[in-house]
């Protein structure tokens, strides 16, 4: 598996992967209307271009096929992480997450945080996150349940000196 930074030609494959992932992997957790509100078909490429622009995104490829992606901010926020349905539960998300976690630790971030779906919550819990709040959010007029989650003390756990580490949300000068 190859992990690399997002390039413009990844936009359409990412939108397809996201849409397939939501409509396949979230079937047991969210109803048809909820999944359609979350991942409308066809995807709006312009929306996705704007959505990804302020984020750092890494993609995972296997034999030239996009099999997963993760988008994050340098303040410790894991914004999105999705795996292609036929590559789920094969370590793609773990490899992507570990790469981002290492990057954020090297930047001195001491807390990671995310908003996880019902489907993603167990993944994040396995990686040391704890639920801080259950949330009901409105997406295109439909209510979806998600969980605000955080993983504190990341840099401290990795031996990053306290004078280098900074709290989530604090930007580097």
The CATH class is Alpha Beta
The helicity comes to 25-40%
Shape, principal axes of CA atoms: globular
Radius of gyration: 16 Å
And the CATH topology?
Aminopeptidase
Strand order of the largest sheet: 1-2-3-4-5-7-6
Mean pLDDT: 90
SSE topology string: EHHHEEEHEHEEH
Distance between the termini: 35 Å
The CATH architecture designation is: 3-Layer(aba) Sandwich
Number of helices: 6
Indicate the structural class.
Answer: alpha+beta
Describe the largest sheet: 7 strands, mixed
Low-confidence stretches: 160-173
How many strands in all? Answer: 7
Range of strand content: 25-35%
* Count of discrete domains: 1
How would you name the CATH homologous superfamily? Answer: Gcn5-related N-acetyltransferase (GNAT)
In words, what does this structure look like?
With 173 residues, the protein is α+β, with helices and mostly antiparallel strands. The protein has one domain: Gcn5-related N-acetyltransferase (GNAT) (Aminopeptidase, 3-Layer(aba) Sandwich). 32% of the residues lie in helices and 31% in strands. A 7-stranded mixed sheet has the order 1-2-3-4-5-7-6. The radius of gyration is 16 Å and the shape is globular. It starts with a strand and ends in a 16-residue tail after the last helix.
């Amino acid at each position: 598996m190859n992990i690399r930074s997002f390039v413009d030609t990844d936009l359409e494959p990412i939108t397809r992967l996201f849409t397939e992932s939501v409509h396949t992997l979230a079937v047991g957790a969210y109803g048809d209307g909820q999944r359609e509100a979350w991942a409308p078909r066809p995807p709006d490429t312009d929306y996705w271009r704007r959505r990804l622009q302020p984020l750092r995104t890494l993609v995972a490829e296997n034999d030239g096929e996009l099999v997963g992606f993760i988008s994050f901010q340098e303040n410790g926020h894991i914004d999105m992480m999705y795996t292609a349905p036929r590559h789920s539960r094969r370590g793609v998300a773990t490899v992507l997450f570990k790469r981002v976690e290492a990057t954020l630790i090297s930047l001195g971030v001491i807390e990671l945080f995310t908003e996880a779906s019902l489907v993603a919550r167990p993944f994040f819990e396995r990686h040391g996150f704890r639920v801080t709040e259950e949330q009901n959010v409105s997406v295109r007029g439909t209510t979806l349940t998600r969980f605000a989650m955080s993983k504190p003390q990341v840099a401290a756990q990795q031996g990053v000196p306290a004078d280098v580490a900074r709290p989530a949300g604090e930007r580097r000068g």
